[in-house]
Each structure stands twice: as structure tokens, then as C-alpha cells.
């Protein structure tokens, strides 16, 4: 498949009219053809209007037909073969194994939501039958979930497949019956076009309205703001920086009809080294921590950017082993020059900070990221909010506490996080129990004796957390729960069987339903 540099609007390839952008090979330091031009306001409007026109038809599809559509997208992505894998590698410098694994995760997410649609619980059907003899009488009440409407999805920089064109936000929105208008990420536009064409092909195969999916190309904040402001858009999915997420939230809130923005933004994912675990296996924990910190050159939203522990010789064993593992690490190409530049600035700021000591700093190189480890006191961390700021890349800060009470005090001051990890042994249960209520308020996923950089795609996964890790801590962007972001409830009171949606009829297709508050399976 030839990459043309086109946007895809309503099933048709179109050229943007604004500023041009080319992909960049981070490893070779070279731009990659072709040029992708930024779509203009009229093209954004066309994509959004087509999505709006497609909404009622698309959401009315049976669960099985929409599931088949998701599966067809996955098949079309796999049909791209090495053309896709090699383009991702060229635009990101990610190794083949990582790209192939991410492609499998992307297709797996589509299948996961297809299975959810066929299973049926997403409808959340509820029946409260009429009680005409009650005083006052109760009407017949039935409820189901429906899609919100067209969704604007912003592709992420760090996962060019799994959080991009056909990634989790797109898969969950389409599963909910919501057409998607996708803003491709400028760092991997060729990858985006290839996957976008796979989605368009699936739309054609399934005979769906062309407005079910559009891909917008280009650069500039104006493109994203214009998209979020369009009256046809009813929700936003975003993975990126805190500044970018806040800008979209402000634009969405300022609309005549405000809409929700589900933004994943920033997280430093604290790792707690509890005393008994540190005493028993400091070196083993350090080795696993170093591997997690440097995975993917640290460009993971669940990267362990903060370590919290109690002072003493066992902590010194950990920092010595972690420093030894990290200081010899090679500088590796990061996803884009912008990410590499931000990482370098963050590392330099910590290295020059008066209250921070450098434990390990591998040789840095332009456009690349090399491991870095720093240490500071709990008092400094508590008094200086700048020490909580995310450094996106393989850098972490160890915060030394005097005792469990100070450890809990630091935990109370943490911002919202995607994850928190408890490294603990049997003797640490009391300390863990004292931290757990705080962590439940602060994070979306609590791990014991693992590392946060593994995010399983399954029903029970939560990839979300209190602000600023996400804009809405009640939601997740990974797992079947992600569909709830793009649904809303509708109640039907005293409608005849012929007017009710099929899933709500007395002999309807609902697999799971609540009758008088009791969950049953048909």
C-alpha cells in the first residue's frame, strides 16, 4: 500500500490545504516522505457532519454486526503485514518485536470489544415493571445505554498503534455505536494513514455509512481545538501531555453545549519499597525496577518515575544496585525530537536542583534518552511541587522518608496517579494496610510485587486515575470498562412493546438485565 499523505474523510482521500508536516526517523535523523498537509476548517466540518449523519444508522446496528465490524478492522490491520510494521519502525525507532507486540495488542483490543458486544452486558438493561395497584401507581420503567454521538479521538505519540488510529479510544467508541473523527499524531502520520485506510476498508466491507470514521492530518493546536468545538462532537478521547489535555478540556467546557473530555495526561507512578521487602531482596527489586524504568526508553505512561522508601542501609543497597544497573545504560532514540528535548530539560533540572542528588546519570545524547536516577528527602519533596512533575523518559526520583508516618505523609501529598506499586513481604502487611486507604484515593491501579509498565488488556484492568493522571478518575481507557465513557442511559416509561428498543422488549435480546434491582441472565 502506497502512503500518499492524504486525510481520509467520509471514505475518500483528500489533501489538506494548510501547513505541511513530514514524519521523522529518530534513529537516522532524517525526514520521511510524503508530506502531510493540515486539514482546514471546512474539511474538519465535513468530517464532523458526516459522522453526525452516520450516528443513528451506526448505533442502530445489532451487537453482532458492530462486533463483526471491529473484527474486520483487526483483519484489515493484519493484512497490511510488514508494510505497517516497517513504517512504524521507521517513524518511531521502536524495535520489531515491540511493534509486532503492539499490533497484536491493538487487534486484541478490537476483539475484546467485539466479545463484549456479543456478550451484551454493556447495555446495562434494567426493568422495573408497572405496579398499577400501588399507591401511587408505578409506571413501567425500562433503561438501556446508548452511544453519546460522534467522538473526537486524539492519537498518542508513545503508542503508534495501541493508543492511536484504531487503538483503545477508537475501539471503545466504535463499540458504543459512536462514529470517530480521528486526529492523527504528527510524529507517525504514515502509520496513521495505513491504519486509517484499514479502518475505511472495514467500513466499506461492512456496508456502513462512510462517516463512521474519518482521519484528519496535520499540525497545530488550532486543528484540535476546532475539532473539539464542533457541535457534532459529543465527547473526546485524548492521550498526551497535561498542557494539551487541559487545553482541550477548556475548549470543551467553553462550548455552548459542553462535552466530556476523557484525557490521560501525566503520572509518575510511585513505587513503595516497604522495609521487610527491602531487607530481604533489595538487589532483586532494584534489577526489576531498572528494567521497568528503561522499558521502551521510559516512554510509558506507567513508567515508575518515583520511588518512596524509609532511610537505612537496606535502601542504600537498593540505590547502589539500581544505580549500577542504570549508569551503564545506553542512550537510545526517543520517539520524537520534541520528546527527547523535554526529557533532557527535565533531567537537567533535577541534576542542577539544590535539594536533589544525582545517583546515576548515563551519558546523554541529542535526540536520545539515557537512564537517570536521583534522590531527595521527603521534606524537600513535600515543600517543592516541582519535584512531583513527570519526566517522560527513563528517569526516576527516590524520596527518602524517616519512617512509615512520613511515608504516609508524602503519599497524602501526591497528585492523582495511574498506578502505585507496593514492594512488600509478609512483615510489611501493617505498613501496607496503613497506606492502602490513601492509595485507593490517589490511584487507579494498585500493584503488589510487580512493575506498573505491564498493562494487561482485559475486563478488570483500570488504566485511569484521579486528576491529573486523567481528567475523570471514574473511567478507564483500557479494558471493557472503557466503553462506559461514550455511553449514556435512556429510560423508557410506559412505551408499548412495538416502540421499545428490541433489547428492552419482554422477549428481547438482552443477555444480562436487572429486574427489580436483581441481576439475572436470560
TrEMBL record:
Domain (Aldehyde dehydrogenase): residue spans on this chain: 21-457
Gene3D superfamilies per UniProt: Aldehyde Dehydrogenase, Chain A, domain 1, Aldehyde Dehydrogenase, Chain A, domain 2
Domain of life from the UniProt record: Bacteria
Signal sequence interval, chain numbering: none
CDD domains attached to this UniProt entry: ALDH_KGSADH
Keyword Oxidoreductase in annotation: yes
InterPro entries per record: Ald_DH/histidinol_DH, Ald_DH_C, Ald_DH_N, Aldehyde_DH_dom, Aldehyde_DH_Superfamily, ALDH_KGSADH
Pfam families: Aldedh
Keyword terms of this UniProt record: Oxidoreductase
The protein, known as: Aldehyde dehydrogenase family protein
Species whose genome carries this gene: Duganella levis
Amino acid at each position: 500500500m502506497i502512503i500518499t499523505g492524504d486525510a481520509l474523510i467520509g471514505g475518500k482521500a483528500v489533501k489538506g490545504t494548510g501547513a505541511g508536516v513530514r514524519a521523522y526517523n529518530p534513529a537516522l535523523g532524517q525526514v520521511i516522505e510524503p508530506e502531510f498537509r493540515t486539514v482546514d476548517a471546512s474539511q474538519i466540518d465535513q468530517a464532523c457532519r458526516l459522522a453526525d449523519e452516520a450516528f443513528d444508522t451506526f448505533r442502530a446496528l445489532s451487537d453482532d454486526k458492530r462486533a463483526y465490524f471491529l473484527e474486520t478492522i483487526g483483519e484489515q490491520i493484519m493484512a497490511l503485514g510488514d508494510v505497517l510494521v516497517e513504517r512504524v519502525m521507521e517513524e518511531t525507532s521502536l524495535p520489531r518485536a515491540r511493534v509486532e507486540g503492539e499490533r497484536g495488542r491493538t487487534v486484541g483490543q478490537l476483539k475484546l470489544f467485539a466479545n463484549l458486544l456479543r456478550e451484551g452486558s454493556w447495555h446495562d438493561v434494567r426493568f422495573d415493571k408497572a405496579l398499577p395497584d400501588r399507591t401511587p401507581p408505578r409506571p413501567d420503567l425500562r433503561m438501556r445505554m446508548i452511544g453519546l454521538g460522534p467522538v473526537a479521538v486524539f492519537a498518542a505519540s508513545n503508542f503508534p498503534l495501541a493508543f492511536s488510529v484504531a487503538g483503545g479510544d477508537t475501539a471503545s467508541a466504535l463499540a458504543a455505536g459512536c462514529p470517530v473523527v480521528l486526529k492523527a499524531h504528527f510524529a507517525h502520520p504514515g502509520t496513521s494513514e495505513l491504519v486509517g485506510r484499514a479502518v475505511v476498508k472495514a467500513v466499506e466491507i461492512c456496508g456502513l455509512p462512510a462517516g463512521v470514521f474519518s482521519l484528519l492530518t496535520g499540525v497545530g493546536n488550532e486543528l484540535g481545538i476546532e475539532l473539539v468545538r464542533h457541535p457534532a462532537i459529543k465527547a473526546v478521547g485524548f492521550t498526551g501531555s497535561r498542557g494539551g489535555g487541559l487545553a482541550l478540556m477548556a475548549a470543551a467546557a467553553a462550548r455552548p453545549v459542553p462535552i466530556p473530555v476523557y484525557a490521560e495526561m501525566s503520572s509518575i507512578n510511585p513505587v513503595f519499597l516497604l522495609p521487610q521487602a527491602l531487607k530481604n531482596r533489595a538487589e532483586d527489586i532494584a534489577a526489576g525496577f531498572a528494567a521497568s524504568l528503561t522499558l521502551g526508553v521510559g516512554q510509558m505512561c506507567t513508567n515508575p518515575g518515583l520511588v518512596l522508601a524509609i532511610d537505612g542501609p537496606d535502601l542504600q543497597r537498593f540505590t547502589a544496585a539500581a544505580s549500577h544497573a542504570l549508569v551503564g545504560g545506553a542512550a537510545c532514540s526517543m520517539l520524537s525530537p520534541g520528546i527527547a528535548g523535554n526529557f533532557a530539560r527535565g533531567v537537567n533540572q533535577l541534576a542542577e536542583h539544590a535539594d536533589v542528588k544525582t545517583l546515576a546519570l548515563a551519558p546523554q545524547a541529542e535526540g536520545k534518552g539515557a537512564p537517570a536516577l536521583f534522590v531527595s528527602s521527603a521534606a524537600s519533596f513535600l515543600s517543592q511541587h516541582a519535584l512531583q512533575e513527570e519526566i517522560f523518559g527513563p528517569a526516576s526520583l527516590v524520596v527518602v522518608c524517616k519512617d512509615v508516618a512520613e511515608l504516609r505523609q508524602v503519599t497524602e501529598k501526591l497528585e492523582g496517579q495511574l498506578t502505585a506499586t507496593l514492594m512488600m513481604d509478609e512483615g510489611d502487611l501493617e505498613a501496607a494496610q496503613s497506606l492502602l486507604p490513601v492509595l485507593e484515593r490517589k490511584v487507579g491501579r494498585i500493584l503488589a510485587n510487580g512493575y506498573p509498565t505491564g498493562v494487561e488488556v482485559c475486563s478488570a484492568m483500570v488504566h485511569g486515575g484521579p486528576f491529573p493522571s486523567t481528567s475523570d478518575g471514574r473511567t478507564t481507557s483500557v479494558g471493557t470498562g472503557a466503553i462506559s465513557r461514550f455511553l449514556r442511559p435512556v429510560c423508557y416509561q410506559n412505551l408499548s412493546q412495538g416502540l421499545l428498543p428490541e433489547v428492552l422488549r419482554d422477549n428481547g435480546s438482552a443477555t444480562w438485565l436487572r429486574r427489580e434491582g436483581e441481576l439475572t441472565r436470560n
